[in-house]
TrEMBL record, chain A:
InterPro entries: DUF742. This is DUF742 domain-containing protein. PANTHER family: DUF742 DOMAIN-CONTAINING PROTEIN. It comes from the Bacteria. It holds the Pfam family DUF742. It comes from Streptomyces thermodiastaticus.
UniProtKB/TrEMBL annotation, chain B:
It comes from Streptomyces thermodiastaticus. SUPFAM superfamilies: P-loop containing nucleoside triphosphate hydrolases. Gene3D superfamilies: P-loop containing nucleotide triphosphate hydrolases (3.40.50.300). CDD domains: Ras_like_GTPase. This is Signal recognition particle receptor subunit beta. Pfam families: ATP_bind_1. Transmembrane segments: none annotated. InterPro entries: Gliding_Motility_GTPase, Gpn, P-loop_NTPase. Belongs to the GPN-loop GTPase family. Keywords: GTP-binding, Hydrolase, Nucleotide-binding, Receptor.
Length: 123, 198
């Protein structure tokens, strides 16, 4: 093997198999993804396979998957969106609806901020 | 090897926690990555985000062609509240030309911890402007180096031009208690800024 960190050999725009727009736009950086145990389909690329392998034993966020697979977050979102719609990944939103920011202000709720403050004090 | 994960993945214990992000912001070499490594329960990770039409002459950038640059974002994870909340700490670069990327990372963040160094205070002005423009609440953490000039808090506030309510804490990004203390100051500030919007 060659010394030093290796670059990925496939350009990121090919990793998705030519799909350039996410079908499932709800995926965020902190959406958690877990494999459903289904094996890859013929239209899945090696990048899809690597993503499935990575989360076959547990859940990780889109951001973490990008870090482990060394792919840009946008590419991971596209790959994951296809795999969610094919039934190979389960997606969990970062915040339950009750705690999600109000649509008008986009600010986190006070209840959540208080829990973060108390959680940090308890460390 | 390019095809294998960069390290052994540390899975989430489940996926029904609340996952939120806090930005750790500042110019290159200020101690963002150090603080994230200090606080993170997993080996810190990084992604390279592609940005187009950015100037291409400075650190943190590697040039891929004339119009495209990649920006490295370091991040780590800290679980609190008996596993009910996972904080993601995102190290975000401070330069204005990263603004498109910045806006993406600022969206949905609880707040930001701005790291400054008294040996080069002016280097942090740009990121403070960006944060103020984005509307995020923030606290300032002065990362103390052995040869840093020791200004009193009042002088620092004046030089940094921060509002009276903005927390200013001295910290050592290599030290867990000290870094945690900075994060706690930010969290308390975020609660006080959230008003009655329960």
């Amino acid at each position: 093997m060659s010394p030093g960190p290796a670059r990925r050999l496939v350009p990121s725009y090919l990793a998705t198999g030519g799909v350039s727009a996410p079908e499932h736009s709800a995926l965020e950086e902190l959406t958690a993804l877990t494999g459903t145990g289904r094996s890859a389909l013929p239209h899945h690329t090696p990048a899809h396979q690597r993503l499935l392998d990575l989360v076959s034993d547990g859940g990780l966020t889109v951001m973490e998957i990008a870090g482990y697979l060394r792919l840009p977050v946008g590419v991971v979102k596209m790959l994951a969106a296809q795999l969610v719609s094919d039934g190979h990944l389960r997606a969990a939103a970062p915040l339950p609806d009750a705690l999600a920011p109000r649509t008008n202000a986009g600010r986190p709720s006070r209840a959540l901020l208080e829990e973060v403050m108390h959680g940090l004090l308890a460390l | 090897m390019g095809s294998s994960p960069s390290s052994t993945p540390v899975y989430l214990p489940n996926t029904n926690q609340q996952r939120v992000k806090i930005l750790v912001a500042g110019p290159f070499g200020i101690g963002k990555t150090t603080m994230i490594q200090t606080l993170s329960e997993i080996p810190s990770l990084h992604t390279e985000e592609v940005m187009t039409d950015a100037a291409a002459d400075i650190d943190e950038l590697s040039v891929t062609d004339k119009k495209t640059t990649t920006v490295a974002i370091d991040f780590g994870r800290l679980t609190i509240s008996q596993g009910r909340i996972v904080l993601y700490l995102f190290g975000t670069p401070g330069q204005r030309r990263f603004k498109p990327l910045w806006s993406d990372y600022a969206r949905g963040a609880l707040g930001a911890l701005v790291i400054v160094d008294t040996r080069r205070l002016a280097d942090s002005f740009e990121v403070m402007d960006l944060i103020e423009e984005s509307g995020l609440d923030y606290a300032v953490a002065v990362n103390q180096f052995p040869d840093s000039p020791a200004y009193d808090a009042e002088t620092l506030r004046l030089k940094l031009d921060i509002e009276d309510h903005t927390p200013l804490v001295i910290c050592d990004a290599r030290d867990w208690d000290s870094s945690l203390n900075a994060l706690r100051a930010l969290a308390a500030h975020l609660v006080s800024r959230s008003g009655g919007s329960r």
